[in-house]
Design a protein that fits this description.
Layout lengths: L3 E9 L3 E6 L2 E6 L2 H5 L7 E10 L4 E6 L2 H10 L7 H10 L2 H10 L2 H4 L7 H12 L30 H16 L4 H12 L8 H12 L1
Parallel strand pairs: 3-5
Antiparallel strand pairs: 1-2, 1-4, 2-3, 4-5
């Protein structure tokens, strides 16, 4: 099973890219967000891959990060959400935005995706709300003491950076014995009240106040 592809960008289409790996071209499907983030033809690219094997075809789906790949799979745990719809959601919501939408049960966020009507958006929000977020290196594993350096303003709410901040706080609360879903909700609510990114320890204190 292919889990990662590294090579040169050979050509790009509406929903695909061909990656040349030592002379072999791999057709990789992906979201518009992934495709627009690709380097120029002839330059090196590395993509996290999810392989779908069916009776009549083998399809490769590519992602710029392991977090996006995890959410791609997590979204498809909802009835009615296939690969096409999951990619459409990833077009409009980055991993950090997805986490917040799930915790808050924000069906309107999912409804922004192409092909997601009100009923499906409501089902996604309802079914994912009580499920733990997808596993990622930012959430799982032993908890390490957070640094006191704030995230720069330019990187605020850009997906990965604010996700690091929030997941550090969530990990701290889980290690204190709080339920992961409850910790997630508390951190999300606390984070939304800051105009600028706080340090992790400040965010943890604010989240504890949300729980109490």
């Amino acid at each position: 099973m292919i889990g990662k592809i590294s090579g040169l960008v050979d050509s790009v289409g509406n929903d695909w890219v061909v990656v040349d790996v030592s002379g072999v071209g791999y057709l990789v499907h992906g979201s518009n967000r992934m495709l627009t983030s690709l380097p120029a033809v002839g330059e090196h690219v590395s993509l996290s891959i999810e392989t779908h094997v069916r009776e009549d075809a083998i399809k490769l789906y590519g992602f710029v990060s392991a977090e996006e790949k995890s959410w791609f799979l997590h979204l498809q745990s909802v009835q009615g959400v296939g690969a096409r719809v999951a990619l459409a959601i990833l077009d409009v919501l980055q991993p950090g935005d997805l986490q917040q939408a799930v915790v808050l049960g924000d069906k309107s966020a999912f409804a922004r995706a192409s092909g997601v009507g009100p009923k499906l958006a409501a089902r996604i929000a309802a079914e994912l709300k009580d499920k733990a977020p997808p596993s990622s290196p930012l959430v799982t594993g032993a908890f390490t003491a957070p640094t006191s350096q704030p995230v720069s303003g330019d990187e605020r709410r850009e997906g990965l950076k604010d996700m690091v901040l929030r997941n550090d706080a969530i990990s701290a609360l889980v290690n204190l014995g709080y339920n992961e879903v409850k910790a997630n909700l508390a951190v999300t609510n606390a984070y939304a009240k800051f105009d600028e990114d706080p340090t992790v320890d400040v965010l943890i204190k604010a989240a504890l106040k949300e729980i109490s």
